[in-house]
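Input structure tokens:
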């Protein structure tokens, strides 16, 4: 199956770092909702994005993501695939089914097997990053998705994550 235009799959390698919520960072580049059931991976993603100026909010699984997404108003969501209660594909499908989150950029951060990529594309995922990943590649993908969202919203330079309800 060919990849639709605009879907990115990145492969990289790195060695890995209770409900948690965002830390406000001055000069923020955008707000990211990081969803992963593994606390170490969640923290690794969070730290790497915060170091690059992103505000990060975390959720433990897809169900928690859906509970907080409308309050958090992220610019991008990163999702693991294998999670309890609601997996990444189910979460992405529900985000796409909701008019308030339909256009929210979603990146899968997982093993990224061919099956995961195909299932993610079917669920409307915008980008894929294979674990283990290089932090620079994570930042590049998230930044690209935030910038693309800003262009689509026509609100480049507006405060991150604001304006949707």
């Amino acid at each position: 199956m060919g990849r639709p235009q605009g879907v990115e799959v990145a492969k990289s390698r790195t060695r890995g770092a209770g409900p948690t919520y965002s830390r406000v960072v001055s000069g923020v580049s955008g707000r990211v909702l990081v969803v992963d059931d593994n606390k170490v991976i969640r923290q690794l993603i969070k730290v790497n994005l915060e170091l690059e100026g992103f505000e990060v909010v975390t959720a433990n699984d897809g169900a928690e993501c859906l509970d907080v997404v409308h309050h958090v108003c992220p610019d991008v969501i990163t999702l693991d695939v294998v999670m309890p209660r609601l997996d990444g594909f189910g979460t992405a499908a529900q985000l796409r089914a909701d008019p308030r989150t339909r256009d929210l950029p979603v990146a899968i951060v997982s093993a990224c097997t061919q099956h995961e990529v195909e299932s993610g594309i079917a669920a409307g995922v915008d980008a894929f990053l294979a674990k283990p990943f290089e932090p620079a590649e994570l930042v590049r993908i998230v930044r690209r998705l935030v910038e693309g969202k800003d262009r689509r919203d026509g609100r480049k330079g507006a405060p991150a994550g604001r304006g949707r309800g």
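The CA atoms of residues 8 and 67 lie 27 Å apart. Residues 1-5, 10-26, 155-165 have pLDDT under 50 and may be disordered.
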